[in-house]
Amino acid sequence: FGSRACSKICLRVRTSIFDIRNLPHRRVKTPTPSAPMTSRSFILAILMLGPQLGSGEKFLQGSSAPVDRDELFRVAMAEAMGCGGAVEPERFRDIEKILAPIWRVLPKNRHGRAEWQMLRYVTHRYFVQTSSLLIRGFEPARRVNDSNIGSAQILVEKVPSLVESVLEGKRAATGFTLEDAVSMVATLEQLIFDSESAILQKVYARRNLDRDLSDHELSGVIEEYMVHWFMNEDVPRIDILISNSSLMQEVFPHWDDIKRFVAGVVKTQQYSRQQKPAGGEGSAAMTHSYSFDDAHKVVGSVTKTFASYWESECQAIKASLVELDKDGTGRVSLSKFYGANLDGEWRFGESETYLRDLGALDETSSWRGKQVIIPNYMQGASNCIVTTANYMVCCVNECEPILNDIEAAMGGPVAMPADLLRLVQNMTSFDDEPLAISKALETQLYRIGETHGGKVPLHGRLFAQWLHYAFPRECPFPHKAGSHVGLAPMEYGDSYKVSEDEVSTYAASRNASLSAAQDLDEAQQMLQWNEDEELIADYSQQLRAPWEGKWSLLQLSCTVLLLLVLVGTMGRGEKHKGSGRGILGDFDSKSHFV
Questions:
Q1: Alpha helices, DSSP H only, in 438-594?
Q2: 3-class SS at 220?
Q3: Is there a contact between 321 and 374 (Cβ–Cβ < 8 Å)?
Q4: Strands lying side by side in the sheet with 361-362
Q5: Looking at residues 301-314, what average pLDDT do you find?
Q6: Got the DSSP string for 48-60?
Q7: Per-residue model confidence (pLDDT) at position 558
C-alpha cells in the first residue's frame, strides 16, 4: 500500500489486525479527471522574479558558453505541466532566508559557486527541515556520478529537458548560486503542489462534485484525499476502504486523530481567508463556500504540516527504542527489538533482511550481536507515514538542528578539531542530557583533521560518522553512498515483514550475555567506525593534503637556496629577485585536492 499508516499495521505479526493485503480485488472504473484548473503563471513568475533575487542572476546562469542557457531553461520550465498560481515574491524571500545559513558554509569553487552535488544537498536539507519531506532522487545515500547525477524524480518526470539540457550539460560544471538554489526549491514546491491536484481531482470525480463546497463537505473531501494519499493511489483498495468506515478504523488506528487534524487544517484555511481574502474571495469567505482551488490550498498545507503533527507517533516509537538502549549507544540488540515485538510492540516487525538493506543494522560486534541503530531506523523508509512516487513524509531528522548549530558557530565549510570539540562539549542531546565526549571519540576527530591537513570538512562522511557517535540517538550512522536502499515496505516486497518463527527465535536469547556486554571499552563500542571518507564536493579551495604543508616548506627552502646561489654566482641581484618572485608566484597559485 505504500504508506506508513497502512504498512505499519501490516507489521502486527502477532495480532488479529486487519491486513489490507487480503482485501478482495475489485475492478473500479477510475473517473476521468476534469481539465486542470491551473495556469502557467508560475513559469512566468520564476522567470521574472528569479532575476530580482540577490545578485540578479537567473536560474542556473553563469556559463560563458555561446549557447543561450536561459532559453534552454525557459523551454524546460515550459514542459512543467499544470503549474498553478504565481509564486509570490515573499515566498522567494522566505525560501532564501532558510537556505542562506546553510549555503553560507558550503564549499565553493573558484567562481564562488557551489557544485551540483551541493545544490541537491542543500535542497534536500531544506525539505527535511521545513516539512520532513524526503525528495526522491535527492536522497543523501544515493550515489552521484557522471552516469547518474541524482536529480529529483519529479524533475525528471515533469521537466526532463531541464535535467537533460541544463543540469547534465556543461553549464552545471560552472557551479550554482544561492539564487539558483532558491529557484530550484520554489520549482520543486510548485511541482509537488501541482501533482497533488491530480489526486484531489479524483476525489472530486468519485463524489461527482462540480461546485463549491460547504465546511462539512470540504472536510469530507480532505478526509478522502488523506486515504488516497496514505494508500499511494491504490484505487481498488481505496474504494473498499471508503465504502466501509469500520475497516477505516481498523486499518488506520489513529483515524479519529487524523480527522481532527483535517478539521484543524480546514479551520486554519477558513481563518486565513477571512483575515486576508484574495481577490474575489470576500463573499465566499463570509458564506463559508470553498472552490476547488481552496481545497487545493488545504491539501498543500497538509503536505507541509502533516509530519509535525505525526511526530508524536515518531517520538513514541523512539521512546520504546530508547527504553531498550540501556547503555546509551544508540543501538538495540536485534533480540531485544524482536522481544519487544513479542511483548506487543507491533511496530517492531521489519525483517532482519529489510533492516539490513535500510542501513539500520549494525553487525560489527561479535559480542553484542546484531543491533538496530536507533536514528537509522527512525529515518528509515519503514517509518515514513506517506510514500508517493516523488517524495516521502518521514519522521523529523533530529540531527539537523545539531548540524545547523555547528555550521552557524564555525561559519565555514571546514573547522579546526579543537574548535569543534569546544563547541560540541558545551551542547546537549535532544533529551537535554549533557554530552560526554570520550577520549576515543576525541582522538577520532583529530584523526579526521590529520586526513585533511589539519581541518575537518563539516559535510563529509567522516564528520557525519563522528556526529553519530557523539549523538548516537539523534544522528544516523552514514553508510557509504549507494550501499543501502530507501524502499518503503510495500515497495520492498513481502520479505519486509519478519516471520513469527524469527521473532520467537531471537526473543528467546534476548537476556543472554547482555550484562557482560556493558563492560566493553570505548573502542569496542565504535567497531562500526569506517575510515573511508566521502566528500560531497571538491574541497580543494578549503583543504590541503596532509603532506602538502611539509612539501611546501621543503620547496620554499630549496627555492631560497637556489636564489642565494644565483645571487652569489651571477651578481645580478635585482634580476634574480624578480625571477624568484616569479618562481614563488607560480608555486603559491597551486593547490591540490585529495
A1: 439-451, 461-470, 489-492, 500-507, 514-517, 522-525, 548-570, 573-588
A2: helix
A3: yes
A4: 331-333, 371-373, 361-362
A5: 94
A6: HHGGGSTT-PPTT
A7: 56
- For residue 428, the cross-strand partners are 434
Phi, psi at 269, each rounded to 5°: -65, -40
- What burial letters (b/e) apply to 63-82, b meaning 16+ CB within 10 Å? beeeeebbebbbebbeebeb
pLDDT digits (tens, 9 = 90+) for 178-194: 988 888 898 899 899 99
What does the mean pLDDT of the chain come to? Answer: 78
C-alpha cell at 361: 543494522
In the chain, the N- to C-terminal Cα span, in Å, equals 45
Residue 535's beta-bridge partner residues? 460
| 3 state SS of 457 | strand
Determine the Cα–Cα distance for residues 322 and 340; give it in Å rounded to an integer: 12
pLDDT higher than threshold 50 for residue 267: yes
Per the CB < 8 A criterion, the answer to whether 248 and 255 are in contact is yes
In this predicted structure, what is the pLDDT of residue 471? 95
Amino acid in the structure at residue 516: A
Sign for the pseudo-dihedral over CA of 416, 417, 422, 427:
positive
3 state SS of 115:
coil
Contacts of 363 (CB under 8 A, 6+ apart): 356, 370, 371
- pLDDT of res. 367: 83
What string of DSSP letters covers 224-254?
A: HHHHHHHTTT-HHHHHHHHT-HHHHHHH-TT
| Cell representation of residue 453 | 591537513
The CA–CA distances, whole Å, from 463 to 314, 456, 532 equal: 26, 7, 11
Report the amino acid identity of residue 69.
R
Mean pLDDT of 162-181: 72
Set of cell numbers at residue 65: 558558453
* E strand residue ranges, 285-444: 331-333, 361-362, 371-373, 386-387, 391-393, 414-415
DSSP tag of 164: I
Among the listed residues 588, 581, 480, the one whose alpha carbon sits nearest the alpha carbon of residue 143: 480
Q: What is the pLDDT of residues 3-18, one digit of tens each?
A: 333 333 333 322 222 2
pLDDT of residue 269: 85
Backbone angles phi, psi at 512, to 5 degrees: -75, 125
